[in-house]
Amino acid sequence: MSLKKIALVGAAVLSTSVVMAQDYLPILQYHHVSASTPRSTSLSPEEFRGHMEYLAEAGFQVLDLSQALKDIQEGVELPEKAVAITFDDAYRNIYQNGFPIMKEHGFPFTVFINTQPIVQKNRNFLTWDQMKEMEQSGGVFANHTFSHPYMLRLEEGESHEQWLDRMSKELSDVEVALEKNLGHSPKMLAYPYGESNTEIRALIKERGMIAFGQQSGVVSKDSNFADLPRFPAAGNYAKLSTLKTKLNAKPMPLADVETGGDFATDLPVQLQMTFKEGKYRLKDLACYVSGQGKAALNWVDSHTVEASADKAFGVGRGRINCTMPDMSGRHYYWFSNVWIRPGADQNYVSQKN
């Protein structure tokens, strides 16, 4: 598999005469707000209230996601302690249990909706009337595809061209529904299961959209706006102590990244990072491989490091997360990358190329 270089947009350095209150944005990702849904994608209403109360008491500025991203791209400063709140899937418990809490605090939020269950009038999912009500108090609704598919898997007998046409329709159907029922779309997408490849990301860019994966990290002007990071804040990540660390995270100061591509094989993955010029605590950099512990670090030169897994990932998604304290010790730089290890019977597009 040939190495893929991720283009890090916006390499220009701002003049030192311009002081940015904050030029980056941590984004929280939720799904269910319920004590009776699968724990892996849920947190209880009480836990969610605790998160929102902490944001308010600690002075975090909760921003409208779409506007904040436009500001970052245009070099417009964000307020200090800026953060955004998002939800994936159109679960009704967001309206029942999460919305009243956010409304109390006046926090804007974004819900990425898959519209098939809404069309089917599934009682566990939002209605358009509920979404219109939520819009009146800071809610924004964006694209999570029509049927929530694994976007990189071919259907039986499907050609590559047919697959890409089907994925294009998955996006278009939601955009049409948003315009028809709400009158507008923010042109943002959350990839189902966080999965995308170069073709899907190219499709996003052609449509003038912004999209999110499921890798953790902080958005900055250097980010890939067709595959932005967010911090999961439910399930194993619902503890307030770990959330505080993420809320104070900064983007890793990288000039270049090489990942080897979107897919993992039967060999261990490797991540090569080249740091921008600057004063950093590089000796305190630590990288962790999902399910394996610390990654081995090999410094190629004074600014370039290779982080390597010890063994191959199993079938599914695996990642390497890297953190490094800043010079003050009050914040952590953060970067994460996700790979997909396809199963032999899963019919991923990588297996047909």
Automatic annotation (TrEMBL):
Query: What's an example Gene Ontology biological process for this entry?
Result: carbohydrate metabolic process
Matching entries from InterPro entries are given as: Glyco_hydro/deAcase_b/a-brl, NODB_dom, Polysacch_Deacetylase
Q: Provide the alphabetized UniProt keywords.
A: Signal
Which SUPFAM superfamilies does UniProt cross-reference here? Glycoside hydrolase/deacetylase
Q: Where is the NodB homology domain?
A: 81-353
Molecular-function GO terms, alphabetical? hydrolase activity, acting on carbon-nitrogen (but not peptide) bonds
The record's annotation in PROSITE patterns points to: NODB
Per the UniProt entry, the signal peptide is 1-21
Q: Which domain of life is it from?
A: Bacteria
State whether keyword Transmembrane helix applies. no
| Cellular compartment(s) | Secreted
Q: Signal: is it a keyword of this entry? A: yes
Q: Which Gene Ontology cellular component terms are annotated?
A: extracellular region
Give the protein name, as stated in the record. Answer: Polysaccharide deacetylase
Lineage of the source organism?
Answer: Bacteria, Pseudomonadati, Pseudomonadota, Gammaproteobacteria, Oceanospirillales
